[in-house]
Amino acid sequence: MSLDPDLAKLAVDHGLSLGADYVEARLHHILEVGCLLRNSSPEPTILVDSNGLGIRARYKGALAFGASNTLSTQSVKELVEEVVKRAKASIRLVGEPIEFSGEEMGRGSWSAEEKERLEDIGVQTMLKHLRELDDVIKDGFHGVSFTNRLLMIETSVEEKFYVNSDGAELRSRVPRLSISSFINASYNGKNYAITIPAGYSSIGESGGWEVVKRLDPYTFFREEGSNLAKAVKSERKPPSEPVDVVLGPDVVGLVAHESSGHPAEADRILGREAAQAGESYLKKESLGLKVGSSEAYVSDDPTIPHSMGFYLYDEEGVKARKRRLIEAGVIKEYLHNRATANVFSTKSNAASRSVAYNREPIIRMANTYVEPGDYSFEEMLEGIKLGVYIKSFMEWNIDDVRFNQRYVGLEAYLIERGELKEGVKAPILEVTTPKFWSSLDARGKDIQFRAASCGKGDPMQGAPVWTGGPHIRLRNIRLGAR
Question: Is CATH 3.40.50.740 what the domain over 5-233 is classified as, yes or no?
Answer without folding.
Answer: no
